[in-house]
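Practice problem: predict the structure.
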Amino acid sequence: MSSEASTEELITDANMISESPTEALAAFEPFVQWLLSASEDDLASLPEEVFSSFEAANEVGGGIEDGANAKSSDSTQQEDRPSFGNAIKARLALAEAEGELETAWDQLSCARREWGMLDDKLLALQDESDENREYIALLERRIIKLLQDRDLAIAETYTTEKQIQDAEFFKAKQQQRRQQQEEEQRKARVASALRKLLLRRSSDESGNSSGNESPTAASSPKYTEKDVQRLQKELADSKVAAAVAKAERDDRRHAIRRAERRPVNRSCLEMEEPKPVQFDEESDEEEQNPGAFMWIEGDSLAPPCQSDRDVVSKIVEIARVTPAD
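Answer:
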């Protein structure tokens, strides 16, 4: 506290002095002002050369008179001023260099930290790239598996559709073949019933005309010219119908072979169902179906559950056969 008080007193005394007595002392006016206003820490931070120079100057001028002391002090002060300024500049330059060094060291440390962070980021990016590659490979395997499943499903669908088409085609052919067989059986039954009817009529007529004829002559039927022409016409019509049926059969075989060689279209499989044969009341069955009265040997195709009377009545109703024929 005493030092601070003395420093304040010196400052007030220095302020009271308006001007320096000499020009030599006026040169030290800034230093004196700084020295009076400086604190103990500022004074302690001064270099040792300052204090040593002051001590050397005091020792040299201790044994000289006041006039000589004044002259020597002026000369020493003028000599010590450049050294003091150079020391201060050197200290300031050193401090500035140390500050720049610390700044450069801090920048180097920051650069090292950033370099380490860049290494960590690079490692993280490499790990992420490896994970992305593994994920891409997994996705490629999944895509290949899905494509294989799709191809397998398409192949199964095509096979199933082909089997369905073959089944429909086979079913249609079976139905057509069954209808043809039923039609042929119906025609055979009609022809068999007509043959029986003609045999009975011929036997009745032969029995009534001559009772003394031989059994062989009685059993043999007698035909008129009209019957012969009709039978010839039926034979020709049956041959024509057989030729047409054979041509249709060949066409169907060729169509089946072409269908087996190439994929079958469903529109080709939609076959029209055969329409049942219907006879008009004004025309007989012979004109509409010439092959219905073919002469077939044997009676194996006759309906087993019908009597002769029923068969004759149906034949007469269909063909409208009269005794005058």
